[in-house]
Amino acid sequence: MRPISLVVVLAAALMMLTSMGLSPQPPTAGPYKVLRTAKVGGEGGYDYIFADVEGRRLYIPRGGATSQLTVFSLDTLEPTGAIADVRSGGATVDPKSHHGFSTTKPITMWDATTLKVIKTLDVDGRPDGILCDPYNARVWVLSHQPPHATVIDAAEGTIVKTLDLGGAPEQAVSDGKGTIYVNIADKANIAVVDAKNLTVTAHYDVSSKGTGGSGLAFDAKNHVLFAYYRQPSPTVVIVNADNGNIITTLPTGIGVDTVAFNPATMEAISAEGGGTMTFIQENSPTSFVVEQTLQTMVGAKTLALDTKTNHLLTMAAEFGPPAPDAPPGPAGRPARGPMVPGSFSILMVGK
Hints:
The protein is mainly β. 4% of the residues lie in helices and 49% in strands. The chain is built from 1 helix and 28 strands. Strands 1-28-27-26 form a 4-stranded antiparallel beta sheet, with no helix packed on it. It has a 4-stranded antiparallel beta sheet with strand order 2-3-4-5, with no helix packed on it. A 4-stranded antiparallel beta sheet has the order 6-7-8-9, with no helix packed on it. The two termini are 37 Å apart. The model is unreliable at 1-23 (pLDDT under 50).
């Protein structure tokens, strides 16, 4: 099939969104820009991206026939290695034990220094999202199917407990002091979890403001949560983490998946499949404003924050047009054509 340019893909995507009655956030001026684009190629799908800030490595799982966990330099975006036969949605590294985990089934545990597989752990559900909680060095594997969370001791590589979160989880965040918050996608609420006793202590209902939950970011200093929802229009619901009170809402771009909060700049940042990245400035614990909407690349819906450099990393590829009889993608997403060979790219965003 004849390759098509990113411009054509972007135009087609925007036309599709408009036909669906959705208006993407237009790019706006601001301090952020795409600093570097590394066209690293490779085959297979992609989902989450993870930055090991201490180890200066960037992990990108790739699916398909040649499934592997690909590894790049967090500073140069040059490839530095891979772990073969690891098909996963996400990855994380415990900075204490230097053990890495990928959401394969079974879960793959590996040495983050040597990239050698240590062992696998049998789990139930459908592993997807993943979080390493620095409070007690436990890895949380999230699943849309029960059990919603499988908790693993990062040092020992043993399963501590499985947990019912009351619905299908998307992104989770830790306050580093014993509380984990999880955006429950199908219930439009935020689960509050006691990380020590492994119990759900509350659900913050935000269904009056949006449904179809995705990303979740957390300002630990001011105890503010940024919960992202896709319907009826792309929205971030800003919530008091102590009591669940809604502070305000703001618009975002279309197709938010994962998000981050940068404590150095006091910004919540979302990656959006429509081809944008939105920066929300926290002026005070009760004052927030959309600072900038940056054009990135269609399909760049997940991100990772490098807290050492304040750079954001995201990724996407170019795709040809779908076949006329191609079925829709998961969750009603539009059909997508084949990936243009060699087009998979990593984007570094910063000031």
